Amino acid sequence: MAIALPAVAAGELDGAVAPLRLAWPELRWTGPDAWHLTLAFLGEVDEGLTGRLGTRLERAAARHARLSLSLGGAGAFPAAGRARVLWTGVKGDRRGLARLTQSVAAGATRAGVLPAQEGRRYQPHLTLARCRAPADVRTLVATLASFAGTAWTAGEIYLIRSRLQEQPRYETLGAWPLLAPASSRHA
């Protein structure tokens, strides 16, 4: 379950990351076609549960307002000195994003699909690169620390299937709108 990036946000980020890809070819870099903000990772989902899951996600989305978000800064999991993942952070309505994340994870659980990261604290981020072996990416984190993207309004959540290959491939299975502001619902 995820939030997609608008083209302007992806373009800004790609402009900041493109020169780094050339300097760090040993990392497995993600690109704009794979960029999204994961709300909950579900792992393998039985095909028979996707309809029930869609219904729960639609209900969850309808209870949450659109979010003002932007990308900025950088970090690494588990740490910059021994990274497996390089990421950029999410700024803006992080409290609303956390509530939405809890709601979609609860909806998935009610549909019979247990989120894979159950029990871990949600850290909103967008994955920029993965490392085959732990790598020292402190220089990359410092270089991207000042990155600050333009804010956008997230208006939908998506159910995305990933197909793992050398680089993951993503397929959108469904999309559900977040609650529009009261002023636009009455227009």
Write the layout of secondary structure elements.
Elements: E1 2-4, H1 7-23, E2 28-29, E3 36-38, H2 50-62, E4 67-77, E5 83-92, H3 94-110, E6 125-135, H4 138-144, E7 152-154, E8 156-163, E9 169-177, H5 182-185
Antiparallel strand pairs: 1-3, 2-6, 4-5, 4-7, 5-6, 8-9
Helix pairs in contact: 2-3
Structure description:
The structure is a single chain. By secondary structure, this protein is α+β, with helices and mostly antiparallel strands. It has a single domain, classed as Cyclic Phosphodiesterase, Chain: A (Alpha-Beta Complex). Helix content is 31%, strand content 32%. The chain is built from 5 helices and 9 strands, in the order E-H-E-E-H-E-E-H-E-H-E-E-E-H. It has a 5-stranded antiparallel sheet with strand order 2-6-5-4-7. The chain has a two-stranded antiparallel sheet with strand order 1-3. A two-stranded antiparallel ribbon has the order 8-9. A hairpin with a 5-residue loop joins strand 4 and strand 5. The two termini are 30 Å apart. The mean pLDDT is 89.
